[in-house]
UniProtKB/TrEMBL annotation:
Name used for this protein in its record: EGFL6 protein
Domain spans labelled MAM: 2-148
Lineage of the organism: Eukaryota, Metazoa, Chordata, Craniata, Vertebrata
InterPro entries: ConA-like_dom_sf (IPR013320), MAM_dom (IPR000998), MAM_domain-containing (IPR051560)
UniProt-listed Gene3D superfamilies: 2.60.120.200
Gene that specifies this protein: Egfl6_1
Length: 149
């Protein structure tokens, strides 16, 4: 497995230059490193911020599981979507409300077929809310299919 966490990961993360705002590092409550976040007050409603994970060494014709922690904290904070590079049109994962401020786990299967997925994009869309944040942490890439819960 490959640790793509922000504090100590070995992966290549890039801010999208063509979006409306950047994701920012935020300190973890436990004080051990940081996660990436978009505070609710950044930008205007429907503004988009994209954080891209570049995947350069994935083997063709194999499966991977992308596991990550996420949270949507705050009323009408917005949407969090995940896109794979070879499926540009529709998100492969989307969440638009947090039941509470807890961190949850997201999982996405990445199949390396004829086309190679060379990047994963975490996209935050600003909602109407004025407080809270959208956060992503603990991004890990595991070889093979996603485990059942």
């Amino acid at each position: 497995s490959v640790d793509c966490s922000f504090s100590r990961g070995v992966c290549d993360w890039k801010q999208d230059a063509d979006d409306d705002f950047d994701w920012n590092p935020a300190d973890r409550d436990r004080g051990d490193g940081y996660y990436m976040a978009v505070p609710a007050f950044v930008g205007h409603k429907n503004d988009i911020g994209r954080l891209k994970l570049l995947l350069t060494d994935l083997k063709p014709k194999s499966s991977y599981c992308l596991v990550f922690s996420y949270r949507l904290a705050g009323e009408k904070v917005g949407k969090l979507r995940v896109f794979l590079a070879n499926k540009k049109t529709a998100p492969v994962w989307e969440e638009n409300k947090g039941k509470d401020e807890k961190w949850r786990t997201g999982k996405i299967e990445i199949f390396q077929g004829a086309e190679t997925t060379n990047s994963v994009t975490f996209e935050s869309e600003r909602g109407k809310g004025k407080n809270g944040e959208i956060g992503v942490d603990n991004v890990i890439l595991i070889s093979g299919l996603c485990p059942e819960d």
